[in-house]
Specification:
The protein is of the alpha/beta class. Helix content is 40%, strand content 15%. The two termini are 34 Å apart.
């Protein structure tokens, strides 16, 4: 598995497994299958209400803890410094871990700065290896930078071929923060698997449209966290490191960018 190095030296795999909308036994089974297939990032969140199930799968996987990279996030239920401190402890306990690899503030809540301060404390005392944010636009990111002491390692944003986030990626890069993609397949908002250009290029490279969509992001240095409940798709999504897209074809894929959120979060 190829990795990227965060601003504090921690290495993070370039592809992970997302668990949004997975609950109960299905969540446990999907996480277990993903780990068996070779995924090492498991991405969860307080908002997903599945940290316990993710933890159950991790506890039974038989993989050394040092090989795993577990991400979770603070939700608006923890909107404030004191609530965030409590949630950090609860998330660690639910996941059955001694530490979290990456802990994010899920959105730019009204008390995001206080929540982030709680993450900074967890980072300093070793309970969190890296901290960051999610769904912070460039202005909100800059505002947080004015108040934080630890520069976010990651900003996890809606990013896919229809919203490439190139300007944001450059802004983040200039301060040492990595852009990570959620919804790399658009969560069904677009028929990305039937996108004619990706389908055409897939024939050239001997890959599927899905693999082209992921490779496009990874080749730009953007980690991705696709989700699937099907083993064959899990395996397919991992199989993107044995080819490279030419610069000409990267530009062709870039032309799909519509510049707007498919989820109505930002223009």
């Amino acid at each position: 598995m190829e990795t990227v190095t965060l601003n504090n030296g921690v290495k993070m795999p370039l592809i992970g497994f997302g668990t949004w909308a997975l609950t109960g036994r299905q969540c446990e089974a999907c996480v277990a299958a993903a780990l068996e297939e070779g995924y090492r990032i498991i991405d969860t969140a307080e908002m997903y209400h599945n940290e316990q199930e993710v933890g159950n799968a991790i506890s039974r996987c038989g993989i050394a803890r040092c090989e795993l990279f577990i991400t979770t996030k603070l939700s608006n239920q923890s909107n404030g410094y004191d609530l965030a401190r409590k949630t950090i402890d609860e998330s660690i306990k639910k996941l059955g871990l001694d530490y979290i690899d990456l802990f994010l503030v899920h959105e730019a809540y009204s008390e995001a700065a206080g929540m982030y301060r709680a993450l900074e404390e967890g980072y300093r005392d070793g309970r969190i290896r890296a901290i960051g944010i999610s769904n912070f636009t460039a202005p909100r990111y800059r505002k947080l930078l004015e108040r934080c002491q630890v520069v976010p390692a990651v900003n996890q944003m809606e990013t896919h071929v229809y919203l490439g986030q190139e300007a944001l990626q450059e802004t983040l890069r200039s301060h040492g923060t990595l852009l990570e993609a959620w919804a790399p397949f658009t969560q069904g908002k677009k028929q990305i698997f039937a996108e004619p250009l990706l389908f055409e290029l897939g024939k050239t490279y001997g890959k599927t449209a899905a693999q082209l969509a992921l490779r496009y992001l990874v080749q730009r240095g953007i980690p991705v966290i696709p989700k699937s409940a099907h083993r064959e798709r899990m395996r397919e999504n991992l199989n993107i490191f044995d080819f490279s897209i030419s610069e000409q074809d990267m530009d062709r894929i870039r032309s799909l960018d519509e510049g707007t959120s498919l989820f109505g979060f930002w223009g």
